[in-house]
Design a protein that fits this description.
The complex is a heterodimer. By secondary structure, chain A is mainly α. Chain A is 74% helix and 0% strand. The relative contact order of chain A is 0.10. Chain B is of the alpha+beta class. Helices cover 24% and strands 34% of the residues of chain B. Classes of the chains: A mainly alpha, B alpha+beta.
Chain lengths: 184, 217
């Protein structure tokens, strides 16, 4: 079913909307949650919470990009659940991802006046200047939380190449954020 | 331990970047998939050809060559010599230097089949083809007037065949009939060297499983 048709079901308050969302995006949402939480049970709950949030948000919201809308909700809920679950449950993969991102821009380097929205916008602009391969490898690693092995298998690059691409992209991102005055 | 701010800030990335990453397939993977698809197509094609060959070989589908005729090595026999005779025979298309007078001949082509010990081997020949049987070195059967020769053969499946002979370069029709088993005795009308012939008068390949041309003592 097309996203617009699923959206129509939400607007009609038809519970089939959840079913169709689950059928089309359930696997993707679960994967995002699982990459963060590393627990099937918690991930399943997060995915269900995602459907619930979507049900509550639509209407009045009518997201232009339904897939991204669901991914963001799932990620957000999963990160909150991760906080709640305490750090010991954090996956080594995710901890490594956070550390790598912090090497680009640690919390104490960020100017106090800069908001998360501005950082997000700067990263978005930076990613648009990157090659499709570098951009999507970066997103799969740091947004979706996929492991190097998973990206390597799906993108057909060696693990070494993926690591190298990520390293270079982080380096360029760091320079870009400093140039934009986001880093103090 | 909270995620770093930059990780949290990535929540604000543009939607199209996120959905783009969901659906993105690198060019090299597309290429690899195409190669895999192409290889699969080639493999399927080869398998299909193999199946076709097996079907033709084992079940005789799409071919006149049946599976149990192991000795069917040269289905059309040996083309009988002089092709230039066609130019001398404007009313027919038979290419055989055994025939010089084409008055009675209605066939597209002729093939020469040499017999061992008078036994007709397993052969097949196309519609409107004439099989001319010879003894060693394209020799005919020397018969005196009144001598009899029995012409016997079996067909893989019944169809219309014409039996005749060539005498002194001229073709004579004797009879015609349907198989699968056929027997006819020909009485020599005069002295001479006789070449016995079968012409396929059906619309499908004629398949002879075996046969014999036997001179009566």
């Amino acid at each position: 079913m097309e996203d617009m048709q699923i959206m129509d079901l939400y607007f009609a308050r038809n519970e089939l909307a959840i079913q169709e969302t689950s059928r089309k995006y359930g696997h993707l949402c679960f994967r995002i949650a699982h990459n963060i939480l590393y627990s099937a049970e918690d991930s399943e709950e997060c995915v269900n919470d995602t459907y619930f949030s979507a049900w509550n948000a639509i209407p009045p919201k009518k997201p232009a990009n339904f897939a991204a809308f669901l991914c963001k909700i799932t990620r957000n809920i999963s990160l909150k659940r991760l906080d709640y679950n305490m750090a010991q449950k954090r996956t080594p993969e995710l901890a490594a991802s956070f550390e790598e991102l912090e090497s680009v821009l640690s919390d104490d380097q960020i100017r106090e006046t800069v908001t998360d929205q501005e950082i997000g916008a700067a990263i978005s602009q930076f990613l648009r200047t990157e090659s499709p391969d570098s951009r999507n490898v970066f997103l799969r690693k740091y947004w979706f939380g996929d492991s190097i092995q998973t990206i390597s298998a799906e993108y057909g690059f060696s693990e070494g190449k993926i690591k190298s691409m990520l390293h270079r992209t982080r380096k360029r991102l760091k320079a870009e954020l400093q140039k934009r005055g986001i880093a103090g | 331990m909270k995620p770093p701010r930059i990780a949290a800030a990535m929540e604000a990335l543009d939607d199209d970047l996120i959905s783009g990453a969901v659906t993105y397939v690198p060019a090299r993977v597309v290429r690899r998939n195409r190669i895999v698809l192409l290889a699969a197509c080639i493999a399927a094609l080869l398998a299909l050809c193999g199946f076709g060959y097996a079907a033709a070989h084992f079940w005789g589908i799409g071919s006149a060559k049946p599976s149990d005729f192991d000795d069917l090595a040269d289905p059309f026999g040996t083309l009988a010599g002089d092709r230039d005779t066609q130019a001398e025979a404007p009313t027919c298309y038979v290419k055989s230097d055994l025939i010089t007078d084409y008055t009675n001949v209605y066939a597209d082509n002729a093939v020469c089949v040499e017999l061992q010990d008078n036994r007709i081997p397993a052969i097949y020949f196309s519609p409107n083809y004439m099989a001319i049987f010879t003894q060693d070195a394209e020799a005919g059967w020397s018969l005196s007037k009144g001598e009899e020769v029995t012409f016997r053969f079996s067909l893989y499946e019944p169809l219309q065949l014409e039996v005749g002979y060539v005498l002194n370069g001229r073709y004579y029709k004797v009879t015609s009939g349907m198989g699968p088993d056929f027997e006819h005795t020909i009485c020599a009308p005069e002295d001479g060297s006789y070449f016995f012939c079968l012409t396929n008068r059906s619309s499908s390949n004629a398949i002879l499983t075996d046969g014999i041309i036997q001179k009566q003592s």
